[in-house]
From TrEMBL, chain A:
PANTHER family: INNER MEMBRANE TRANSPORT PERMEASE YADH, INNER MEMBRANE TRANSPORT PERMEASE YADH-RELATED. Belongs to the ABC-2 integral membrane protein family. The chain crosses the membrane at residues 21-39, 59-82, 94-117, 137-162, 174-196, 224-246. This is Transport permease protein. InterPro entries: ABC-2_transport_permease (IPR052522), ABC2_TM (IPR013525), ABC2_TM_bact-type (IPR047817), ABC_2_transport (IPR000412).
Automatic annotation (TrEMBL), chain B:
SMART domains: AAA. Keywords: ATP-binding, Nucleotide-binding, Transport. This is ABC transporter. It comes from the Bacteria. SUPFAM superfamilies: P-loop containing nucleoside triphosphate hydrolases. Residues 4-235 form the ABC transporter domain. InterPro entries: AAA+_ATPase (IPR003593), ABC_transporter-like_ATP-bd (IPR003439), ABC_transporter-like_CS (IPR017871), ABC_transporter_ATP-binding (IPR050763), P-loop_NTPase (IPR027417). The lineage of its organism: Bacteria, Pseudomonadati, Pseudomonadota, Gammaproteobacteria, Methylococcales. GO terms for molecular function: ATP binding; ATP hydrolysis activity.
Amino acid sequence: MNYSVAFRTILYKEIRRFTRIWPQTLLPPAITTALYFLIFGKLIGERIGSVHGVSYMDYIVPGVILMSVISHAYSNVVSSFYSTKFQHHIEELLVAPVPNWVILVGYVCGGIARGVLVGAVVTGVSMLFTHVSVANGWISISVLVLTATLFALAGFINAVFADSFDDISIIPNFVLTPLSYLGGVFYSLAMLPPIWQTIALGNPILYMINAFRYGLIGVSDVDIVLAFEMIAGFILFLSLFSLLLMHKGVGIKN
Amino acid sequence: MKALSIQNLKKTYANGFQALKGVDLEVDSGDFFALLGPNGAGKSTMIGIISSLVTKSSGIVSVFGHDLEKDTNQAKSCIGLVPQEVNFNQFETVKNVVSIQAGYYGIPRKQALAQTEQSLRQMDLWDKRDLVSRRLSGGMKRRLMIARAMVHQPRLLILDEPTAGVDIEIRRAMWQMMQEVNRQGTTIILTTHYLEEAESLCRNIAIINNGEIVEKSAMNSLLQRIHIDHFVLDIAQNLLVAPCIEGYEIELVDSQVLNVAVPKSHGLNRLFQQLSGLGIEVLSLKNKSNRLEQLFIDLVQ
């Protein structure tokens, strides 16, 4: 059976959903990141000077872009898939001859699409404040897409387990946002005391932000190969876990 | 060819409740089949398992010869489900609700749009195609769910209380639609609490109670087993007490209205003769309830 039509239908529905409500999905990251660049990059950054040989503004651009990608790839899937559960129209998919992996790939690609689109919007905003250079295009694009994939998968798992709208806001607010802020968006690992440097290395988002920073400005606090291995490992684990949950019907079947 | 074959189907929920206790059921291709049962009897669980919304504990379900477990996608392609509760995306337009469902069944976009139009026209909703679905009336929402279930032209249509909460005019229009769909060759399984609906539409019937099938037969042969009919008589005289006639159970509802239980062995002629002898003139009579209702109550109690 050819599942490409079912996949394209899910993706079309997902992209239509977040583009239809663009004032809620695409506009806020533009405004928030413009404020980041203005306050941290321009006003405070000029007093900080350079980090790893680049201006502070240029240093924070990759982290701010990737932070927006992480947050939007996650929130797109968690809110969309939970809503389909909450309104019961997940049943439209469950009764149809659509295998679990097609449902998963459809929703995750929807999350990637929003993450990448938000990344493009934030990159556009950053170009109002500085010249955005690209040291290695392939590394930049692959880290961006793989990170969006990883967090879209995480959002899917959150939605599967969620029983209320509170459940879909706990992880973004209390886990994702702190880890993103502490993932080296606004500072280099070298700026931290030794003990905090060691603790920070346990934060997976640090590796993603640094890998993306390496792609854009050629500077990183961590080994790029290790960062790619970590992202790939997480994607593999979360994909298999998602499929297992769907196979068992956790959260979606009685 | 059996449209549906169920063997020893069991379902025990995580809390230990055994909703289905080994159900066996077969529905012929082309049939209009009634599945009746009181609330909590196991109807929705059974329909949930057939339509892949509920995971079974054990047993075999086949749809047009396709095992639902081994040949899942072929089996699913044969089924269209109209659930009890509204379960479409209420922020989508009417057209998108149906065309997106067609996409899930692998129908390419151009063909999906053509079949969406056909399905919406059949349910008299084409002129509402661009309306956001939450703005539809209750009856229209029901018809939209039927249109959505029909868009991939299923061979087996499962209607889970499709007329619940809709007014009699719309209900009768929906009966006509269902009969037309069945005439065109689609097998229909109908669950309903309106027993006159089952009696007038369905050719075969199964009654489920406490997770077990307690009756399965042709509707005609089931109705022949009913020995007592209930009638409401409007009479010309004002009565203070119900008349007493041997062989009939008579109850005074109002001074000019009687409820009478008439055994088939006694018939109506004898009743009218006796009433006439008592000086009571009958102005009109009607069935108190449909015949199936009493039988249903007897079977599930």
